[in-house]
């Protein structure tokens, strides 16, 4: 960051105009985000100073990233939020508590970083109620990781708040930072503007050839132009820079400028150079700290020469002219000089109020192994973990391992660092630390942890079946050590084999289940986890008849388990996806699926676990698809996608694809399916290929493209081997009968009956009865179709009820029973049309037309013009929730809630919350009553 008033912004009229527009929009009540990108010295910090100087009648708050090895969680965010402390108590209690714990102001469970993000969003929103807020973040690429992630979350959730955020990011160091946000890219000044800046600096005109040569050498970089012309007259520059006299002009621009700064250091007194080194080693810029450290080193503070050289400014805080000055000072010092300065800073740091900073400086001062230093870093890592700073925990543990003298302790700390790096999404660094741990003597328990970590890293990179044997080995080691982690790891191994589509064989799911049952592993501490393993193992090892009832009992236990602590809730949220992704369809129980997914959504909202919320919403969206409530599924998918984007995760495409399939939207599904197939093949995730087969089976059956449906469903059966097999079999039976492939249909029916017989649920009995009806004639077929309608109704699977009416009506029409066929086809069309299952509705309409009746298409009701998020906000408001409660529920600010409601009122033609319930009564809801009796209303 440039210190002092910014120079005239020559050649930056376009960029200044863009920032002026941002301020205008902010004052008019809008929210804006801008990321300014460019190389070092290109003028990013000057533009931030420019917008700050122009921000009259606006509350400005800053955060500055500083290049340092130190990683203190939420340090930069704490700096940014300080001006708003007086409003902290106005936050909702969960948000307030999360922020206090994150900033080390209170003890408590480690907060979810996205809940901290929501707290910061609410805090900024509160502050903006009296004055617009402008957040400026310089050198964002050097923020501590959790601060950067939190601010990115806030930036992506801004919508109706009177808040603007401007980030400056140095490239190439920050090329992966803040991707996808609006960007203002800075390149070098053009020749005319650079020449003007140069002549303004040297105080005279330069001959054009000389000026253009100098500008070309500096690539139009403003800082380079200013620094290399600093103190030189036009006459001195008349022949350009002599590279033999100024070797620093060679190489990349940033490196040249840094070398130029370094060359100025040699002319400074030794005491001044030491003073600069203290400032460079202590990134906070605390002037008091600098004075205490200087006293420890017994040097007289003489900053005047450094000021005169244009390198630093001293005041209440210490600020370098540019980050390149800091790096030039630190890198130019000898290792012993750096260690001496860190030693002095450690002594100058209060061990009670700032133990983590003291521990870090002590570690940097160490010139060899030191257990006391290592233990201090380990304690700091534990504090970072308690505050939710996993990345900081990893860095601190890694440094602790480096200075640990005892090989056993070094191995234990290296393993803990590797696990933390993996949790912080740094698998490469985790692998390196795992190798360090492997070279040290480890306990049996730690050997098991290491094996599990290596398997998890492998599984994260590729869903192939290579991870499962490693997980089984780790589980066996945990068992031998008497660890409660054994059963959890066996379950993880089985899940890994299922993702890889490997059920049979020596490394398949069945072998893993047999190994788990024979292991004698101790209880895991979670009754639901133990029951889930028992249920899964029973299905795999004993067969469906024995295993499915046990599995259903485990799912029920998961739904009802009491969770007394946040830690227990987090563990539950890790376990639920295993059940929902890998095993739920074998229960054929939509109500259990609903209960489990609904609980996952509720728990994730309650503790602010935004990482767990998007997949939970997708699971619940899948439930509503089967209920035939596509609008509700849309809302959940939309929220999941928005949260995934805000948290930097890829969207979960499963529910989007299933919804597109039931709607018959081949153009929507095709590119997603193709990309999913590519990724599945690349990662070895065979079960994903199975899911794609089922989804395309639904899609093509709905579009009456039966040959394509046959091939897709067959692919689903062949590639899955577990979770989607039953659903793919249902699609295959229908497609095969339509294509005249009756032998294929009978073979699939036999497998389907084996699966559904064990489940003994309405959904299972309905699937079996309808599939049998497709291969039967006469009164028996008639009875089976009616049974299927009744059973699907009991199971709550509305889409299958409608589909069975369609198939039954088609069968009746082919049997020349037009009157009865018309009744069922009409019901199917009304249901599908109400769901907006367009392809199935059109298929029913064509069949109805063949009976001599035209299908009626219902008109869109007012609520259908709402976006998914507007619909969700309106529904919650109609239920009586306040804006603050809705905001907490959806992880948006109350201002955004109000903004959505204003749009809802306009679209629905109402002017108050009281009118919402009536206005939202839009498309009739289909109710299922059993037999073939349906009613809409």
Average pLDDT taken over every residue: 86
Task: Report low-confidence residues grouped into runs of 5 or more.
Answer: 1-7, 239-250, 923-937
Rg value = 33 Å
Residues in β-strands, percent: under 5%
In total, the number of strands is: 9
What is the topology, as strand order, of the major beta sheet?
2-3-4-1-5
Helix fraction by DSSP (H/I, runs of at least 4): 55-70%
Q: Biggest sheet: strands, sense, closure?
A: 5 strands, parallel
What are its keywords?
937 residues; mainly alpha; disordered C terminus; two-stranded antiparallel sheet; single chain; disordered N terminus
Describe this structure in words.
β3 (133-138), α6 (145-157) and β4 (163-170) form a beta-alpha-beta unit. This protein is mainly α and 937 residues long. Residues 1-7, 239-250 and 923-937 have low confidence and may be disordered. The protein is 64% helix and 4% strand. It is globular. α9 packs parallel to α10 (253-265) and α38 runs antiparallel to α39 (798-814).
Gist of the model:
By secondary structure, the protein is mostly helical. The chain is 64% helix and 4% strand.
Task: Describe how the helices and strands are arranged.
Elements: H1 13-27, E1 32-38, H2 44-54, E2 59-64, H3 75-81, H4 93-102, H5 113-128, E3 133-138, H6 145-157, E4 163-170, E5 183-185, H7 191-202, H8 208-217, H9 222-228, H10 253-265, H11 270-281, H12 287-296, H13 304-308, E6 312-314, E7 318-320, H14 323-332, H15 335-348, H16 355-365, H17 371-386, H18 390-402, H19 407-423, H20 427-438, H21 444-461, H22 467-480, H23 485-499, H24 509-519, H25 527-542, H26 544-560, H27 566-583, H28 590-607, H29 613-627, H30 630-646, H31 654-663, H32 666-683, H33 686-702, H34 706-720, H35 725-738, H36 742-759, H37 762-774, H38 778-795, H39 798-814, H40 818-835, H41 838-850, H42 868-878, H43 883-890, H44 894-908, H45 916-919, E8 926-928, E9 934-936
Parallel strand pairs: 1-4, 1-5, 2-3, 3-4
Antiparallel strand pairs: 6-7, 8-9
Helix pairs in contact: 1-2, 3-6, 4-5, 5-6, 7-8, 9-10, 10-14, 11-12, 11-14, 11-15, 12-15, 15-16, 16-17, 17-18, 18-19, 19-20, 19-21, 20-21, 21-22, 22-23, 22-24, 23-24, 23-25, 24-25, 25-26, 26-28, 26-36, 27-28, 28-29, 29-30, 29-31, 30-42, 31-32, 31-33, 32-33, 33-34, 33-35, 34-35, 35-36, 35-37, ...
